[in-house]
Design brief:
This protein has 203 residues and is α/β, with parallel strands linked by helices. The protein has one domain: Vaccinia Virus protein VP39 (Rossmann fold, 3-Layer(aba) Sandwich). It contains seven helices and nine strands, in the order ααβαβαββαβββαβαβ. The longest helix is centred in the first third of the chain and has 17 residues, at 4-20. The chain is globular and about 45 Å long. The structure holds S-adenosylmethionine (SAM).
Length: 203
């Protein structure tokens, strides 16, 4: 991807700082929502893309899932491994797994770094490694149509973000998956400039 080198550098530098942050309550609730979908259907294996320091993979592993954490930042993957997770440096645009491999895929706030021109290729790659009827959680900030470098970012280099309006992201993901669940978490709960789009999809 066009911005990959900068993203790796930004997140490598912030890996330890992000690892020390407490997970917000609304994100804990997001995990539990997806977990209830997984339990209902007896799903066993879960791939996390853009796992960061691996807190969500650790949660799902502790709940009995067989997890595989991936991220493009080597420093993030070091932190995943320190938690005892199975983890590997990997670009979600090029997943090193066979077709139809995982029961479930979890992605929290990582696909918002993909330029709009490239998002379809990434969604196709995610779909490829997901088993038929598999479930894919996609959580991203959004609600507005925008993409570009975030000039006020305190990460170095400043990161690229891409955001979609609710109807546009629904249309986009529907090209690849069936929407099982779509909820908006308002800005007041998220505590930032953007709302959050919580989406559960089925292959
Ligand atoms: C905002 S952080 C979120 C991390 C974690 N999911 C969380 O919620 O704490 C975004 C993560 O996506 C990763 N990432 C960005 N582009 C990626 C790519 N092309 N392939 C894999 N990981 C990527 C970054 O390295 C970073 O760890």
């Amino acid at each position: 991807m066009g911005n990959t080198k900068e993203i790796i550098e930004s997140y490598n530098q912030k890996a330890n700082e992000r690892d020390r942050l407490t997970v917000q309550d609304w994100k804990v609730a997001e995990r539990n929502t997806f977990l209830s979908f997984l339990h209902k259907e007896n799903k066993k294996s879960l791939l996390e893309i853009g796992a960061g320091p691996g807190k969500d993979s650790l949660f799902f592993q502790e709940k009995g899932l067989e997890t595989f954490a991936t991220d493009i930042s080597v420093e993030m993957i070091k932190l995943c491994k320190e938690k005892g997770l199975t983890a590997k440096v990997m670009d979600f645009a090029d997943l090193d797994f066979p077709d139809n491999h995982f029961d479930a895929i979890w992605s929290l706030n990582c696909l918002l770094h993909v330029p709009k021109m490239e998002i379809r290729g990434v969604l196709q790659e995610i779909k490829r490694v997901l088993k038929p009827s598999g479930l894919f959680y996609m959580g991203v900030y959004g609600g507005e149509n925008h993409e570009g470098i975030w000039e006020e970012d305190h990460y170095t280099p400043k990161r690229f973000f891409s955001f979609f309006e609710d109807e546009t992201i629904k249309e986009l993901v529907s090209e690849f998956f069936t929407i099982e669940y779509f909820e908006v978490i308002p800005k007041e709960v998220v505590g930032g400039k953007f709302q959050f789009q919580s989406i559960i999809l089925r292959k």
